[in-house]
Design brief:
Blueprint lengths: L2 H31 L16 E7 L6 H9 L8 E8 L5 H11 L4 E7 L5 H9 L8 E4 L4 E3 L4 H8 L5 E10 L4 H20 L10 E4 H6 L10 H11 L3 E12 L6 H19 L8 H35 L2 H12 L4 H19 L14
Parallel strand pairs: 1-2, 1-4, 2-3, 6-8
Antiparallel strand pairs: 4-7, 5-8, 6-7
This protein binds guanosine-5'-diphosphate-alpha-D-mannose and manganese (II) ion.
Guanosine-5'-diphosphate-alpha-D-mannose binds next to strand 1, strand 2, helix 4, helix 8 and helix 9.
Length: 373
């Protein structure tokens, strides 16, 4: 084989792997996993005591709306405690929280203020120290998110009646769903639900992340050395043999930043990469059903973006060195397809992951800068 045909061949093979693996995984989940029953023995009369932890850092704009949203939940008030953990906000967030607390004496409510900001994971661990002893479920929820229906808490809690369930999270809908973010979510939600039906998903959402308290204690609290506290905690719980599921009956709305969208996506990609890197050594210890899922997601987050980059570089090399017509044609098709939204979305995510891996070399973004939503 001539050198240039060899380069073209390798480039094409890499492109086939890059697009083929996720397509096969996606169709498998959609055709095989999605039609399956949940196999969760939920019990709607199961009303355990829950502690809702809300971490806040400069959330003055949204905190009142958030507390109102939680207050609307249809759950016995004496079985819920809300713990707000603030890390040195400078915009008066704690004052707004205190004001809200005074106006809602029916709500069991604690405000903890950390004098310095170390990041969300640290704050969550601080909050854990204040959780009532008889609480069974810990729910973490970000301020910039809303629970869609008043029975959200009931539904999430009811699943813990099944002793195999260790953690529960929600489907998320971007607020005012727009462009790339919205189309990314379609693909993404099917994958999350499919994985959850098979056994567990290694990716959780900060809009509603519910954990069995006993299990959080067993794993030693939330991670502080990486960013994806929600996904990592869920994964450690699944590694212990419990199920960590994203259930399609629970939906949350998430605010999407109006500015610096790219930076936002890159930072979240950084956190996911940190999470999958940290679980790397655990894969072989994973329960069988979960192992396959973890391998697939680790591949998709850590390796697959680089396969696309290598393929592109090889095509360009081939065009420059040998004026290969095949390479020119294939690369042109690759670029032309960018007019199709799902494809554009996919490529954007690969770019986020590549930039994120590089940024991870010098910053972990554990205490990230606040974005306007
Ligand atoms: N107490 C405290 N201390 N809270 C914090 C800190 C901190 O240092 N940093 C952020 N928070 C709070 C915010 O006020 C918000 O309620 C929540 O943590 C999430 O912060 P966002 O700034 O909205 O983060 P995001 O939505 O972009 O990040 C998402 O991905 C992360 C992992 O990549 C969220 O889902 C996070 O929950 C998740 O950890
Ligand atoms: Mn957020």
């Amino acid at each position: 084989m001539e050198l240039y045909t060899l380069i073209d061949f390798v480039a094409l093979a890499l492109a086939a792997i890059h697009f083929g693996v996720p397509l096969i995984y996606y169709s498998y989940l959609k055709r095989v996993a999605l039609p399956r029953p949940w196999n969760v023995r939920a019990d709607s009369s199961f009303l355990p005591k829950v502690s809702i932890i809300i971490p806040t850092y400069n959330e003055a704009q949204l905190i009142t709306r958030k507390l109102d949203n939680i207050h609307r939940q249809n759950y016995p008030k004496d079985k819920v405690e809300i713990i707000i953990i603030d890390s040195a906000s400078t915009d008066g967030t704690p004052d707004l929280v205190k004001k809200w607390g005074k106006e809602h004496p029916d709500t069991r409510f604690k405000l903890i203020v950390e004098p310095i900001r170390r990041g969300k994971g640290w704050a969550l661990n601080e909050a854990l120290k204040h959780v009532s002893i008889d609480s069974e479920i810990i729910i973490v929820t970000d301020v910039d998110s809303w629970w869609c229906d008043p029975d959200t808490l009931r539904k999430a809690a009811s699943m813990f009646a099944d002793p195999t369930i260790g953690a529960v999270s929600c489907i998320k809908i971007p607020e005012g769903a727009r462009g790339i973010e919205a189309s990314y979510r379609n693909y993404y939600n099917i994958v999350r639900i499919g994985e959850s039906k098979l056994w567990s998903t290694p990716i959780f959402h900060g809009e509603l992340a519910a954990f069995r308290k006993k299990l959080i204690e067993e794993i030693g609290g939330f991670p502080t050395d990486i960013g994806a506290d929600d996904s990592h905690t869920a994964t450690l719980i699944a590694l212990k043999g419990y199920r960590s599921i994203i259930h399609d009956s629970i939906t949350c709305i998430e605010a999407v930043p109006r500015k610096r969208y790219f930076q936002w996506r890159v930072r979240r990609a950084q956190h996911l990469i940190q999470h999958f890197t940290k679980t790397l050594q655990e894969i072989r210890k994973a329960p069988k059903e979960f192992r396959k899922i973890l391998i697939a997601e680790t591949f998709l987050h850590l390796l697959n973006p680089w396969i696309l980059l290598t393929s592109t570089i090889l095509f360009i090399t081939s065009i420059v060195l040998t004026q290969s017509l095949t390479a020119t044609a294939l690369l042109t098709i690759g670029v032309a397809l960018l007019t199709i939204k799902p494809y554009r979305t996919w490529i954007a995510q690969q770019i986020h992951l590549i930039v994120a891996s590089i940024r991870n070399l010098w910053t972990k973004e554990i205490a990230w800068s606040k974005q306007t939503k």
